[in-house]
Amino acid sequence: MAKNKNFIYIAASLVVFIVLAFLYSTPVFTGKQLFQHDIVQYRGGAKELLDYRANTGNETYWSDSMFGGMPTYQMGSQFKGDIIKKIDSNLNFLPRPVNYLFLLFAGFFLLGMVVVRNWKYALLGATFFGLSTYFYIIIAAGHNGKVNTIEYFAPLLAGILLVYIRKQYIWGFIVTTLFMGLQIAANHPQMTYYLFLALGFLFLSELIRAILKKTPMKHFLISSGIIAASCIIGVGMNSQRIMANSEYVKETVRGKQILDNDSHTSGKSGMDKESMLMWSYGQLETLNLFIPRLMGGGSQEPEAKEMMSKVQELVQENVGSQAEMDRISKGFSGMTYWGDQPGTSGPAYQGAIVCFLALLGFFFARKKYRYWILGASILTILLAWGSNFMPLSDFFIDYVPFYNKFRAPSSILVVVELLFPLIAILGLYRFFTDEELTEEYKQKILMYVGGGTLGFLLILLIFGKSLLGFSTEGEKTYFPPFLLDYLVDERYKLFRIDAIKAFIYVAITVAALFLTLKKKLNQNIALVVIGVVSLFDLWTVNKRYLNDENYVDKIFAENPFQTESSDLLAEKVQGNPNLESILSNVNINKTLETIAEKDKTHYRIYNQTLGVTSETNTSYFKASIGGYHAVKLRRYDDVLNEYINNVDSVKTPNVLNLLNAKYLVFGGPEQPQVVPNPKANGNAWFVSDLKFVDTPNQEIKSIGTIDNKKTAVIASSDKSYFDNKPVQADSAAFINLTKYQPNELEFKSQSKTPQLAVFSEVYYPHGWKVLVDEKEAPYIKADYLLRAVYVPAGSHHIRMVFEPEVIEKGKWLSLMSFGLFILLSAFGIFWMNKNRKKEILAEQKA
């Protein structure tokens, strides 16, 4: 009976999660969808991939839509036999973002049931975790892969704890393997990497407990073996994805450096430190886990417009010279954010109540949880500081494998956002239920931690201006006193509101716990009070960053690249900042659409109107020189930095010709100017002059100065390619593209002499095959980043196909791993049931 009742409570909790998720996302009831910046960019960049899939029913693993061409592994490509991804899709069956919120709640609920085995605390912890503000910020931004990965943090940890703590080997194996597979399938390796840094502390904790004989060494070894097997099988289910990405990442900005210069060292792996550490959390800024606007909220809070208006008014009234105006402009950053990061969409707010209960948890939770959670929390906070704590960052960048593959260390705080709710409910559960803890001890710790927290808040409220400053170093340097004083006063008001709220929320929590301790308040009522106040706190803060304004009509969410303006469109925009970008880009989109419709041949567009490397509008209509993607091919990124981001009137056009930029678009999005480029090299061309150079630096420097229509720059290491392959000029020779698909190109060539064909196609050494008259021919890299192949005299048919071997190999490994998981799970359940029956028979005989 008790078991059935527990199932009812669990089912009711899941219903509560669905209700909460829908209540937060009420616009979905009217058919509206989230308008997410990164998803808009994705739709543009993945248009060619999506069209190919829709038109052929097949998948292309290469697309020319962005950056001259790149693999689609990080652009939403699908893999045949990818069963674990289908499970992920089925779990995310609810409309976005209801699906994310529900799985965040439900995943932590499972973790709560494992660690405390009480649905009330699991439910409370689920709201603590599922309402973490950072998750709502990344949902608003469109970091869907990131939040999809974080969904599976808690249930994966639940599976591991089932093995280590609960000694439920079979169920632990099943849960760990399943959610390890789902975690990898969500495809955000950075988040998974950070989670496993924290799990390393759990492993060390269990090892130390075994050495100290707090737990049997045999159990530790068996548990570690089961978890290792689970992780290996979970990874194996994603073999295609992992193999393809690991092959790809070596050629990207996350792989080895190619050039030697001030910020790069040839052969060194990973990004340069400046790029890696750009988004580093300030040391003092970490306190916004507890007070959301300690350093302001996002760079553009709702109050920013009013503050900017007042600033402009003050400047007009008090500034009398252009020199003073220029000085002031140097100090401007965000009105409502004054932290150490270049800018931010909002704080990593965990909740005043959650942080307070986490502090209590470090005193009340059992030691088997307490120490590893404390260690993992401290490490991740220190790593989040990035450039603000270089000794640790340098150590991890230089010595910890793969750490230098990831940027934005501030995002490692997702680990704290998992562990603080966990230690909070562990401590709260023991505070209420463990009779080993004396009332005197509970009261003492409650008074010390509660009094200390409230006292700390009072100090900040009284002395906040002098302690926190509320201005950046740039503002202090360049702003006159009248402007600086205004900003400090306004920012202090923002902080004070949130600090007072935090004081009230913590005071209510302390009072509820104290009254329960004194038997003046029922435990269940105390939990309800804590839950409701925390819910109100996090809900109201989250609504600053993900609210009804983030939802738009379906037509705009699914087609954000509108090409026609109308009164209806203007009415729909109605001042919505998300939709204003759609309206403002109508003219440039129409221009791009017109180019694509009038000239249907294969070429690329250089579009400077929206920022070459910060838009995918161009890619939505035609292949682009630029794009928007965090994991670009290294060679292409080097060329962008050398010639596109730093424009030279002679060298840049030369490189654009090389990349077959047939049309150049200048001006602004309202009045774009199209300039046809008749000098573009085309899709392929023959060269008879070869310039051999010794270093990559010489290669990239040469392509901006040579006549690349006649001469190809070749690395000396490829000189042997031309052994017994003479190249001779033929003015009448030609090579033309006859068929284009993103993963297959066909050319027809004619020449009286042997030639080197250079293709305006990005060199990628994995998966591309070149066939001359259907016989595979070796190809090399030319002009630093393009493909080239030797073509004998005569008429020839040349075909390029992208057929990565890792896809087929990975498919079978994925299927075998999933089959092994099913087989072992079935055997484990059978064995468990068999033993249970034996136990029942033994009891009956006894």
TrEMBL record:
The chain crosses the membrane at residues 7-25, 98-116, 123-143, 149-165, 170-186, 192-212, 219-237, 348-365, 372-392, 412-433, 445-463, 499-517, 524-541, 812-832. InterPro entries: Uncharacterised_YfhO (IPR018580). Keywords: Membrane, Plasmid, Transmembrane, Transmembrane helix. It comes from the Bacteria. This is Membrane protein YfhO.
